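Morning F.,

Quick status update on the modeling queue. The single chain you submitted on Monday has been processed. Sequence for confirmation:
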Amino acid sequence: MNDTAADATDRDPDRDDDAAAVGESNDDAVAVTEPDDDRPPEVVLGQRLADRGETLATAESLTGGLIGSRVTDVPGASDYFDRGFVTYAYDAKRTELGVGRETLDAHGAVSAPVAREMAAGARDGADVTWGLSATGIAGPGGGRDGKPVGLVYVGVAYAAPWGTNESFTRSARYVLDGDRAVIKSGSVDRALAELLSALRDVDSR
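Structure tokens below.
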């Protein structure tokens, strides 16, 4: 099964006790850069990661590698981008990222828990600072009650220094409008925005 085969019901509350607030938007416009910085988000992200000496791995389903492609559009991305996992099917999510069979069975591939486990699997499997994931329904088919076409979950996982107890995973929920290409592109924008937001949150601690 892949992301277009969504469950008819979504029992996930979109948040767990350790997750930051989940964002939801039906608007195609989203702030994807730092405040007062009009550079492309992948450029801002790359500079932030390089300046911090941190690294990134991606775990993608509906975007099929587009997040990694955007990140590596920036010259010098090899300084901070480690690898990307494209895990479209259920079994790929289990075997490559360690997403739990029980999680997939209970919530479906398009869910907040799966997005978080995908991000954590990328982070821990690649042994990097940050894991970033996207799972959703790009359409035109696959939407069902509670999980419409355009539903996207972005997951972020952070590996804080040992002993700080500040590592976390979190997810954000979006419902995007448009055709398949627009939804996939918008998902990349949201993913980059969520990672930049998480970086700001870590800096503010």
